[in-house]
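quick one before i forget lol
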Amino acid sequence: MAGPLALRNSVLEAIGNTPAVKLRKLVTRDMADVVVKLEYYNPTGSYKDRMALAMIEGAEASGRLRPGMRVVEYTGGSTGSSLALVCAIKGYAFVPVSSDGFAREKLQTMRVFGADLRIIPSQDGKLTPELFLKMIEVAKKLGQEPNSYYTDQFNNAHAIEGYIAIGNELLAQVGPEIAVFCAGVGTAGMLMGVSRAFQAGETQTKIVALEPSSSPVLTTGKGGPHRVEGIAAGFRPPHLKDGQYHEVRTVDEQEARDMARRLAREEGIFAGISSGLNVVAALQLAREIGRGKTVATVAVDSGLKYLAGDLYET
């Protein structure tokens, strides 16, 4: 891995190797340390850059994606932004299927990178299981057209492989003594990638999957409308495998929103709602396991992606 000051030959080489920081003001003396990996240091401001690069290069290596073809994916915006970046650099046309229920900044970012964005209308801006199913349906049809490659992030094994580096980086930054790692579940690729890295490192880390209490499909089997972008698609993602995580927890959506604001004001971590959700759970776990241990999680993406919405209204 190139050092932080090394000259890169491409923006793609700037993906990964993100910093990890300890929380200082949100923890108390009786709690475990909480470490947050700042994934908004990736080029598009999201850890999805890792997955996008892995899926595209995996398809190239297998021969399923060749020069002159177009790439298709359904996306809440961050995956689409990441794929749009990778495709722009590699010279592929990109057709993302998204919705007006996602942040306007994310939709515009895809267009900036040259994507041919297709929008599926939402119901009052809510993210529902029905909306995700419609996006999937449209993307699948587009992917079946001639000269198209459908990345299919929820079923693409390279998605998990792209995230293993987060676990390896955390082991290098913090060490094998991480007691718990927790994160929200979208595709579950990131959680499973980190779990694989920790298993390979022979750690005893507990892996905790998170979802909003407004869409508790993993805990109750029933999804619902919510506004936590990037997670809780309303169905159990195929990547989420039994035996590779230990527990599922729900987090109140309003607590996640409040925490995103507190992270900015108290810790200088400017991130989105799913990052707030991750930290709410991380602090709960840190309180439960107590001093002398470490809980790790990720700041998924940059708060700059949410300035046009109501998350950071003042």
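fyi Residues 51 and 162 are 5 Å apart (CA to CA).
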